[in-house]
Batch of 2 targets.
Target 1
Amino acid sequence: MFRTGLVSISFRKNTAEEIVAAVRSCGLRSIEWGSDVHVPPDEKQKALEVRAMMQANGLQTAAYGSYYRLGESTDPEKDFAPYLRTAQWLDAPVIRIWAGRQGSSELDGAALDRLTGEARRLAHMAEESGVRLSLECHPNTLTDDAEASLRFLRAVGSPFLTMYWQPNQNRSPEYNLQAAKLLAPFTTNLHVFSWEMDHGELLRFPLRHHSDRWQQYLQIFGGGDHALLLEFMHDDRIETLPETAATLLEWTTACGAAD
């Protein structure tokens, strides 16, 4: 089943109130709240205000989008605890984290072991707090490759460490289809956009531009329970959200997996 939604950092300049109103007005169901602007870690009052606002508008918090990166803390348990507390205040079932700052091909065995051990400790903390962790599927991190991501998940060995998924604009549609198939059983949420790279330049298109590709991706993920979260409008304007949301809702209706 698909739950449609938005990543709040798509509109960092807008308030939480404006984002909630926009999401509700265009028929989306959920929001991933970013930790950098809208709900900073350990700001309990803000998190509770956002939670109450979501409930009053019939919306769900799909995730807490943190910018915690594996491999950058000397005391991971201490540094990650504020994100866990904030996720609980928000009633977020998932916390998004990042798998370091090096691509999978750049990591030596010792570095990989350190990331594995840290991820295992954080996954244990998440289990005790009743949330799951999901790794951002992103270039220039350990999860820049589907097979490397799968090996890492298996090495950590916790059902509380999972994946986000998104198409990799640096790779071919064929690669992205295979990556989706490999990672679908381990995926919580998806970031949804239509991007391409052209000789090193990132091109951001209206969502409908990749309708054919996305309908193939959604067929792969259709057997699970996933939030489909719009990330960044092609023009960065909140006024464009209704148009983009309409495309996403059209897709979920067509595949018969909308919540």
Target 2
Amino acid sequence: MKFGEKIKKLREEAEINQTELGKAVHMTQRKVSYIECGKCEPSIEDIIAFCEFFKVSSDYLLGVQKGYKYP
């Protein structure tokens, strides 16, 4: 699952719309929409805001596999 798909899934599970999520993470509804559909890449600050809001790790949002050993 891609980053934007995960954000959309988390948003729908939280039962909030894009405008509400945008206000919570300090971005416009349009930017949330673009991130969800893959038209816009999130900044590091955006990723941090999503992690804090949804209480998930950046590894989860970025798709880092469990058990991956860094060199």
